TrEMBL record, chain A:
It holds the Pfam family ABC_tran. InterPro entries: AAA+_ATPase, ABC_carbohydrate_import_ATPase, ABC_transporter-like_ATP-bd, ABC_transporter-like_CS, P-loop_NTPase. The keyword S-adenosyl-L-methionine does not apply. This is Sugar ABC transporter ATP-binding protein. GO terms for molecular function: ATP binding; ATP hydrolysis activity. Keywords: ATP-binding, Cell membrane, Membrane, Nucleotide-binding, Repeat, Sugar transport, Translocase, Transport. It comes from Kaistia nematophila. SUPFAM superfamilies: P-loop containing nucleoside triphosphate hydrolases.
Automatic annotation (TrEMBL), chains C, D:
It comes from Kaistia nematophila. The keyword Transmembrane applies. Pfam families: BPD_transp_2. Signal peptide: none annotated. This is ABC transporter permease. GO terms for molecular function: transmembrane transporter activity. The chain crosses the membrane at residues 25-47, 59-81, 101-126, 138-157, 177-199, 230-249, 310-328.
Length: 524, 300, 351, 351
C-alpha cells in the first residue's frame, strides 16, 4: 500500500499476536489508520476484529499480547483503558455495556460526571450536555431516565454518546450499527462525517458492506487473525470484500422463495393485539392484526422503537397483552413463554447477552437447553444423544467453537448468534419469530441464515422476521408489514417494496398521528 | 495450652460449647488455673462462639482431642440433657466424667461421676428474698435473661416462685431476652422501662445484666433496684457506685476450680462425693471487699 | 423532596400535575421504607404512647447511632458491589485493641483511639486487597475475617473484658449534649450527611455506583474499580472501628461481645432500606431508614409488651412485610402511573 | 475422572495427550478444594498421626453428615440462584416440633418424624413462594424466617429442651452399623449421591443450572423457573428438617439450640467448595468437599493442639487460602494450558 499521507498513522500496530487459552485470535497483525480517515475493519465472525480493537483500547492489557502499538508514530503501551483514553482513543464495544441502575446522563458521562469541573456534580449541566449530544445523534431520550428502561438500540446509542463525550481523537466503533435501522444509521453517519471534518479518525467495524461503501475511506480485512487485504476507497466493491474475507465468491444475496398460495389457511393469526406503552421508551402497540400462512415469511419493517420486538414478545408470551392469538385457527391462551412453546412457537431474541446466552453453561448445553425432552429418557439426559445432536446442530450452522464443552463467553459475537439460532431450531417450531436474526453475523453466514429461513419456510414453518436493515426485510420476506409507533401502517408483497416506500409510509403515518394529537389537544 | 506428654501430671479435658462466651471464659480460667496448680495437663475444647450453643459442633472437637491424648478425666459442661448421651458414651468408655454449673440428681445421668455448681434454685431464691426485702414487699419487677437456656430458665422460675410465695404483692413482668450484644440489650431494657412506667426493680439472670440495667436506668433516669449476676470487677464497681443493688455471686470461678479438683481426684482413682453444691449468695455494697480481693489475687 | 421537584422541569409539561407530582413522590426510593416506618411508629404509639417518650426515642437513636455508623460504610460498600460480613468482629476487635492500648500499654487516649481506627481500616485494607487483587469472593474473605477477628478478640483480651478504662472514655460515653445524646449520635449524623452528599452529588459517589453496577463499564470509562472497592472496604472497616469504640465508651468497658451478631443486622437493615445486595443501587437515606426501622420494631415490640417468644417472630415478619410494602408500592403506584417509567424508583435511588 | 476422560473422544484428537489429560484433570472444578483438602489432611496427619485415627475420622464424618445433609439442599438452591439463611432455625424448629409431637401429643414416632419433615418442607414452601411470587429478596425472606424460626422454637418449647424422647429415637441416634456410623451417615451418603446424579445427569438438574444462570433465558426456553426455585427451597427445608432430627436423635433430646449458627457454616462450606453465591455454578461434590474441608480444619487444629484462641483465626485464614488455591489453580493451570479454555471448570461443573 502506498502511504498517501505524510503524517504518521494515528494508530499503527506491528506484528500483534494474541491468543486466548490456546485460541490464536491474532497471528501477527500489521494495521495502520491514517489521520482523518474512517477506516473499515472487516472480517468474518471470529476473524479477530474485536480482539484487535480491544488491544488498541487497553481492554486487553499490554503484556497479554505480543507486538507493538504506535500512536502518532511513537510506541505506546496501554495498561488500562484510561491510558488508552489519555492517548485520545475512544471505544464503543460490540456488546452492550451500560449501567442499568443509573440515568442516561450518568451513563453518557460515566467516569467523568464532574465534566472536568471538580469533584461535585452539576446535574443540570450534565443533562444539558447529554441532550446536546443526543441532538446530534437524533435521539429523543430524556437524560434523566433510567437506562434499564431503554431498548437495546437506544442503549447502543447511549454507548456511542458515551464514547463521544470523551471527545476522542480516534474513535473505534465495534459494530455500532448492528441494531440500528436505516434512519438511525444515517444520523450516526452524519455525526461521523462531522467528526471527520473536524479531523478526527475512526475505525468502523461492520458486517453491512453497503455501509462501508457509504462512509469509509479505507478498509482492512482480517481473516483468521491475519490481515488479508488493505483496500483503498477506489477499489471498494462488495464482491471484493467478501472474497478477501472468506476466499469465496459472492453468491446471490437473497435466495428465491415461492410463497404459499394465498388461500392457504393461516397458521398464526394475530387479532387486535394491544400492548401498553412504556413512558419515554415507546407508545406500545395498538390494534395489530395479521396472519402468517405455513411456509410464509412475513417481515416486520419499521424504525427503532416502533414496537416490532414487542409484537414478537407478546406472541411468545413474554410481555402482557390483550387480543387474540390463534394457531391453526384455534385461539391459544398465551400467558408465558412455555405456553407459546407448547403451541409450537419459538423466538430468537435480539439481545443475546441479556436474554439469549447462559454464560454458566457450555456451548452444547446452551444449544440443548429447553430442548432436552427428546434427548433424554426418564428425565435422564442421554449424553451420547445430546452430544451428537449438538455436533449436528453446530455443523449445520457452522458454529465456530472448539468443542461442545467450550465456554460461550469466548465465542465471537456472530458465533454466539448462530448458537442461539441452533437452540431455537432444535425445538422444531411451527411458528418461528426471528428478532434481528443476522445481528452481528458476517456476510457469508448471513447468506446461510437466509438459506435456512427459506428452507424452514419450504418445510411449512410460518416465519415472522424483524430486521432493522430495511433492505434485508424487504429482500427476505414474502410479505412485509410496515410498523410505525405500534401500528401497522402499510403492507406490500415481495417485489413491490423498496426502502423508500417504507420510509415514505412511516413518515406519512407519523405526520397523520401528529395531526391527530394536535387536533385532540386543540379540542381539550 | 496443650503440653501433653511434657508434664508428668494427669491429662484433663474440659468440654464447653460456646467457648468464647465471657462467662464461659471465666469458668475456663478457674479450671485452667487450678488444674495447672495441681500439676496436670489441661485442655479446653468447644465450638468457638460467644452466641451459638452448638453441642453437635463441639463433640467432634472433644473427639479430636481424645483421638490424640489419652485423658484421665473429662469435665463436661452440662446445663441440659443434650449433652447427656455424650457423657454416657464417655462413661462407657471408662472415662471419669465431672460436670459443673448444674447439679443433676445422682443416677439421672449415666456415666456421670460427680457434679458441682451453685444450687441454682437457691440462688434464684436468694435473689428474690433479697430484692423483695429491699422493695418492702411491693412493686413491679422487670426480669430478663440473656437467652432461653436451662440454667437461666431455672433461675428465673425459682425467682418467680419465691416471690409469689414470700411477697405476693410484688408483680413480675414477663421475661424478656437481652441477647449477648451489650448495646442492643440496653436499648431493649430502656424500651421495657418506657412501656412499663411502674417498674421499680430489675433482675437479670445473665452476667451482663448489671451493666445492662444500670445503663438503662441511667438513660431512662429511673432509679431501680437492680440485681444481676457474677462478680466480675465491673459489676462490683457498679454495685459499689450504687448503680445496682447487688449481684448474685455465682461461684463461677470456684465451681470451675472445684471441677478441676474433682477431675484430678477421679483421675488419681480417688473416691469423690457425687454432689458438691456451692453457695451462691447475693452480695450488696457491704459485702464487696472479699470479692475484690479474690479478683486481685486472680490477677483480674 | 427537593430532588423530586427538580425533575418536574423537563420533558412533559402536561396537566394532571398534582397526581403526577404525588406519583413522583411515591416513586422516590426511600418512600417505601419511610412509609413502613411511619406506619410502624404510628402503630406502636397508638398501642402505647410511651413509645414516643423522649427517653425511648433517645434509646432507639442511641443504638441506631452505633449500628448506623457501620451501616453508612456498609451502604457505600454495597453500592460499590461488595459486602463485608466482618464488621461486627472488626468493631469488637478495634474496641478491645484501643482499650488495651490505653490500659495495658498506657497510651494517651487519643492515640489509643486512633490505634483502634487504624485496626479497623487495616482490616478493611486487607479485605479489600484480598477481594480485589486475589479475586477471592467477598463472602469468603469477610466471613474468614469475621472468624479471624473473633479469634483475635480472644487473643487480645484472653477472654476478659478490658476494664476499667480511663475516665475520659466514660465521659465520652456519658456525654449527652444534644437532646440527651452524645458524641456517637453527633458523629453518626455528620457522617451520614457527608456520605449521602458524596454518594449523590460527587464524581466519587457516582463512580462508586458505576463500579458496583457494572464493573465492565466502569473499567471501560477509566474508573479504577480496584481503588474504589478497596477504599470502600477501608471506609467500612474504619467506621466499624469507630462504632465499636463508641459502644466501648458507652459501656465504659472493652467487652469481648461488642459487635457480636452485627454483621447480619447491619446488612439486613440496609437491604430493608432498598440497598441492593448485588451492587450499584440504593441510597444512604434508604439504608439508614432501614436500620432505623429494624430498631424501631425491636424496641416497639418490647414497649407494647409483646411476649418475648413472639417478638423475634414479629421482627422476622415485619422485616419481610416492610420490603413487601416497598415492592407493592413499586408495582402499583409506579407501574400504574402514566408519568413514570417502571423503574423510576431506582432512578431516584441512584440520583 | 470418568467425565474428564469421556471428553477426550470428540472434536480434538491432537497429540500432547498426557499433558492435556493432566491439565484436564486439574481443570475439573472439584480438584481445587480436593487438593486443599488433601494438603490439609496430610499436614494434620504429619503433625499428629492421631488425626487419622478411626475415632477422629468417625467424629468428623458424623458431624459432616449432619451439616452435609443441609449442604446438599443448599447446593441445589444455590445452583438455582437463591440461598437460604434459615436452615439452622428450620433444623431446630423441625426437631423440636417432631419431639413435641412424639412426647406432648404422643404421636407414633414415624408420624412425628414425618411431621418434622413437613414443617421443614412447609417453611421451604413459604420461603419459595414469598421469594418467587412476591419477589422479596431471598436474603430478607430467609433472614426473616431465621428469626421467625428461632422465635417459634421458643414458643414450641417455652425454652426447655424436650426430654426424654421415646427410646426408639435414642436407638436411631446410637446406631453404628457402618464403620461406627449410623443412619445419619447412610442417609447423607445416599442423598448426596442422588443429588449429584440429579444435578449432573438429569433434565431437572440442567434446568436448575439454567434457572440459576439466567432466569430470564430459562423462562424463554420454557422452563418454569418458579417451580424450580420453590422446589429447591422445599428441598433445602426438608433436608434441614431431616438433619435437625438426626441431631435430635444423636443428642437424645429436642434441644432448642439445635442448628444455631449453622446458616453461615453451611453456606461457607459449599462456597469454599466452589458453588457460586450468584447462582448457576458449582457441583454437589464440590459443595460437600467444602463442608468436609471446614470440619477437617476445625478438628485438625484441635488434634494438633493449636491454642484455642488461635484456632478460629486459623480457620478463617485456611478458609480463605483454600479458595485462593482454587483461584490460583484456575489461573495457572487452566489459563496456561493449550487444551482448556479459561472457564473450563464451569464447563465441567455444569456438564
Ligand atoms: N476472552 C476470550 N477468551 C477466549 N477466546 C476468545 C476471547 N475473546 C475472543 N476469543 C476468540 O478469538 C477469536 C476472535 O474473536 P473476535 O471477538 O475478535 O472476533 P470478531 O472478528 O470480532 O468476530 P465477530 O464478527 O463475530 O464479532 C474467536 O475465535 C474467539 O472465540
Ligand atoms: N410493556 C413492556 N413490559 C415489559 N417489557 C417491554 C415492554 N415494552 C417493551 N418491552 C421490552 O423492550 C424491549 C424493546 O422494545 P421495543 O420493541 O420498543 O424496541 P426496539 O427493539 O428498539 O424496536 P422494535 O420494536 O422496532 O424492534 C424488548 O425487550 C421488549 O420486551
Ligand atoms: Mg466482534
Ligand atoms: Mg427490536
Amino acid at each position: 500500500m502506498t502511504e498517501t499521507n505524510a503524517a504518521p498513522p494515528v494508530i499503527q500496530t506491528r506484528a500483534i499476536v494474541k491468543s486466548f487459552a490456546g485460541v490464536q485470535a491474532l497471528r501477527g497483525v500489521d494495521f495502520a489508520v491514517h489521520p482523518g480517515e474512517i477506516h473499515a475493519l472487516l472480517g468474518q465472525n471470529g476473524a479477530g476484529k474485536s480482539t484487535l480493537v480491544k488491544i488498541l483500547n487497553g481492554v486487553h492489557k499490554a503484556g497479554s499480547y505480543s507486538g507493538e502499538i504506535l500512536v502518532d508514530g511513537r510506541p505506546a503501551q496501554f495498561a488500562s483503558t484510561s491510558e488508552a483514553r489519555a492517548h485520545g482513543v475512544g471505544y464503543v464495544p460490540q456488546e452492550i455495556e451500560v449501567l442499568d441502575q443509573l440515568t442516561v446522563a450518568e451513563n453518557v458521562f460515566a467516569g467523568h460526571t464532574g465534566l472536568g469541573r471538580g469533584p461535585i456534580i452539576n446535574r443540570r449541566r450534565m443533562e444539558a450536555e447529554t441532550r446536546a449530544l443526543f441532538q446530534e445523534l437524533g435521539l429523543a431520550i430524556d437524560p434523566r431516565m433510567l437506562v434499564a428502561s431503554l431498548t437495546s438500540a437506544q442503549r447502543h446509542l447511549v454507548m456511542i454518546a458515551r464514547a463521544l463525550s470523551f471527545k476522542p481523537r480516534v474513535l473505534m466503533l465495534d459494530e455500532p450499527t448492528a441494531s440500528l435501522s436505516g434512519v438511525e444509521v444515517e444520523r450516526l453517519f452524519s455525526v461521523l462525517r462531522r467528526l471527520k471534518a473536524q479531523g478526527k479518525t475512526m475505525i468502523f467495524i461492520t458486517h453491512r458492506l453497503p455501509e462501508v461503501l457509504a462512509i469509509c475511506d479505507r478498509a482492512t480485512v482480517l481473516r483468521d487473525g491475519r490481515v488479508a487485504a488493505e483496500i483503498d476507497r477506489e477499489h471498494f466493491d462488495e464482491e471484493h470484500f467478501i472474497f478477501a474475507m472468506s476466499g469465496q465468491k459472492l453468491q446471490r444475496l437473497y435466495p428465491d422463495h415461492v410463497p404459499p398460495p394465498a388461500d392457504t389457511k393461516p397458521l398464526l393469526s394475530v387479532r387486535g393485539l394491544q400492548i401498553a406503552g412504556r413512558f419515554g421508551v415507546n407508545r406500545g402497540v395498538s390494534d395489530v392484526s395479521f396472519d402468517v400462512r405455513p411456509g410464509e415469511i412475513l417481515g416486520l419493517a419499521g424504525l427503532l422503537g416502533s414496537g416490532r420486538t414487542e409484537i414478537l414478545h407478546a406472541i411468545y408470551g413474554r410481555i402482557p397483552f390483550s387480543g387474540r392469538i390463534e394457531i391453526d385457527g384455534r385461539e391459544v391462551a398465551i400467558a408465558r413463554s412455555s405456553d407459546a412453546r407448547a403451541a409450537g412457537v419459538a423466538l430468537l431474541t435480539e439481545d443475546r447477552k441479556r436474554d439469549g446466552l447462559l454464560f454458566n453453561l457450555p456451548v452444547g448445553a446452551n444449544i440443548t437447553i429447553g430442548n432436552l425432552a427428546p434427548l433424554s429418557s426418564h428425565g435422564m439426559v442421554r449424553e451420547g444423544r445430546e452430544k451428537s445432536a449438538v455436533l449436528t446442530a453446530m455443523r449445520a450452522l457452522n458454529v465456530k467453537a472448539r468443542s461442545p464443552q467450550a465456554s460461550v463467553a469466548h465465542l465471537s459475537g456472530g458465533n454466539q448468534q448462530k448458537l442461539l439460532f441452533a437452540r431455537v431450531l432444535m425445538s422444531a417450531p411451527r411458528v418461528l419469530l426471528l428478532d434481528e436474526p443476522t445481528k452481528g453475523v458476517d456476510a457469508a453466514t448471513r447468506h446461510e441464515i437466509y438459506r435456512l429461513i427459506v428452507d424452514l419456510a419450504d418445510k411449512g414453518v410460518a416465519l415472522v422476521v424483524v430486521a432493522s436493515e430495511l433492505e434485508e426485510v424487504i429482500g427476505i420476506a414474502d410479505r412485509c408489514l410496515v410498523v410505525a409507533d405500534g401500528r401497522i401502517v402499510d403492507e406490500f408483497t415481495r417485489g413491490e417494496g423498496s426502502e423508500d416506500k417504507v420510509l415514505r409510509s412511516i413518515t406519512a403515518a407519523q405526520a397523520e398521528m401528529q395531526q391527530q394529537a394536535l387536533a385532540s389537544a386543540g379540542r381539550a | 495450652m496443650t503440653d501433653a506428654g511434657v508434664a508428668a501430671g494427669k491429662n484433663i479435658l474440659w468440654v464447653q460449647p460456646m467457648r468464647d462466651h465471657p462467662v464461659h471464659r471465666l469458668m475456663q480460667a478457674g479450671f485452667l488455673n487450678k488444674c495447672k496448680e495441681l500439676g496436670n495437663n489441661c485442655e479446653v475444647v468447644g465450638n468457638p462462639s460467644a452466641t451459638n450453643y452448638d453441642v453437635p459442633g463441639s463433640i467432634p472437637l472433644a473427639e479430636a482431642a481424645m483421638a490424640r491424648t489419652k485423658f484421665d478425666a473429662i469435665a463436661v459442661y452440662g446445663p441440659g440433657p443434650e449433652i447427656y448421651p455424650f457423657i454416657g458414651k464417655l462413661g462407657k468408655e471408662g472415662f471419669p466424667v465431672v460436670t459443673w454449673h448444674v447439679l443433676p440428681p445422682e443416677g439421672s445421668v449415666p456415666g456421670l461421676k460427680a457434679a458441682t455448681g451453685e444450687d441454682i434454685p437457691s440462688a434464684g431464691k436468694a435473689a428474690a428474698l433479697s430484692m423483695g426485702e429491699k422493695l418492702g414487699g411491693k412493686g413491679v419487677i422487670a426480669l430478663t435473661q440473656g437467652s432461653s437456656n436451662d440454667t437461666e430458665n431455672v433461675m428465673s422460675d425459682s425467682f418467680r416462685k419465691t416471690m409469689a410465695e414470700k411477697y405476693p404483692d410484688i408483680k413480675i413482668l414477663e421475661t424478656q431476652m437481652e441477647g449477648f450484644e451489650p448495646s442492643a440489650a440496653e436499648g431493649k431494657a430502656v424500651a421495657l422501662l418506657q412501656g412499663n412506667p411502674d417498674v421499680v426493680a430489675a433482675f437479670s439472670t445473665t452476667g451482663n445484666g448489671a451493666q445492662t440495667w444500670s445503663g438503662a436506668a441511667r438513660k431512662a433516669e429511673r432509679p431501680l433496684v437492680i440485681i444481676g449476676m457474677d462478680y466480675i470487677r465491673q459489676n462490683l464497681d457498679i454495685v459499689k457506685s450504687g448503680a445496682a443493688y447487688g449481684v448474685v455471686a455465682q461461684p463461677l470461678y470456684e465451681e470451675s476450680a472445684l471441677t478441676a479438683q474433682l477431675a484430678n481426684d477421679l483421675a488419681e482413682g480417688k473416691e469423690v462425693a457425687y454432689m458438691n453444691p456451692l453457695p451462691a449468695s447475693v452480695i450488696t455494697a457491704a459485702d464487696l471487699e472479699p470479692y475484690y480481693k479474690m479478683l486481685d489475687s486472680a490477677g483480674q | 423532596m427537593e430532588r423530586t421537584v427538580e425533575r418536574d422541569s423537563g420533558f412533559e409539561g402536561s396537566g394532571r400535575a398534582l397526581r403526577d407530582r404525588l406519583t413522583r413522590f411515591v416513586a422516590v426510593g426511600e418512600v417505601g421504607v419511610l412509609l413502613a416506618l411511619i406506619v410502624l411508629v404510628a402503630f406502636f404509639y397508638i398501642m402505647e404512647p410511651a413509645f414516643l417518650s423522649e427517653r425511648n426515642i433517645r434509646a432507639i437513636l442511641r443504638v441506631v447511632s452505633f449500628i448506623g455508623i457501620i451501616a453508612i460504610g456498609q451502604t457505600i460498600l454495597l453500592v460499590g458491589g461488595e459486602f463485608d460480613l466482618s464488621v461486627g468482629a472488626v468493631a469488637g476487635l478495634s474496641a478491645v485493641c484501643s482499650a488495651k492500648l490505653m490500659t495495658a500499654l498506657a497510651l494517651p487516649v487519643p492515640l489509643a483511639l486512633l490505634g483502634g481506627v487504624l485496626v479497623g481500616a487495616g482490616v478493611g485494607l486487607i479485605n479489600g486487597l484480598v477481594v480485589v487483587k486475589l479475586k477471592i469472593p467477598a463472602f469468603i474473605q469477610t466471613l474468614g475475617m469475621l472468624f479471624i477477628g473473633q479469634g483475635l478478640i480472644q487473643v487480645v483480651t484472653n477472654g476478659y473484658p478490658v476494664y476499667p478504662l480511663p475516665p475520659v472514655i466514660t465521659d465520652i460515653g456519658y456525654a449527652d449534649f444534644v437532646f440527651g445524646l452524645g458524641w456517637s449520635f453527633v458523629f453518626f449524623v455528620f457522617a451520614a450527611l457527608a456520605a449521602d452528599f458524596v454518594l449523590r452529588r460527587t464524581v466519587l459517589g457516582r463512580n462508586m455506583y458505576a463500579t458496583g453496577g457494572n464493573p465492565e463499564v466502569a473499567r471501560l470509562v477509566g474508573i479504577d474499580t480496584a481503588h474504589y472497592k478497596i477504599g470502600a472496604f477501608m471506609t467500612v472497616g474504619a467506621l466499624a472501628a469507630i462504632a465499636g469504640m463508641f459502644v466501648m465508651a458507652d459501656l465504659a468497658s472493652g467487652t469481648t461481645s461488642i459487635g457480636s451478631g452485627w454483621e447480619l443486622n447491619v446488612i439486613a437493615g440496609v437491604v430493608v432500606g432498598g440497598v441492593s445486595l448485588f451492587g450499584g443501587a440504593g441510597t444512604m437515606a434508604g439504608g439508614l431508614l432501614g436500620v432505623l426501622l429494624l430498631q424501631v420494631v425491636t424496641s416497639g415490640l418490647v414497649v407494647v409488651g409483646v411476649n418475648a417468644n413472639w417478638q423475634q417472630i414479629a421482627v422476622g415478619v415485619i422485616m419481610v412485610l416492610a420490603v413487601g410494602l416497598d415492592i407493592l408500592r413499586r408495582r402499583y403506584f409506579i407501574a400504574g402511573s402514566s408519568a413514570q417509567p417502571a423503574a423510576a424508583e431506582t432512578t431516584t435511588k441512584a440520583s
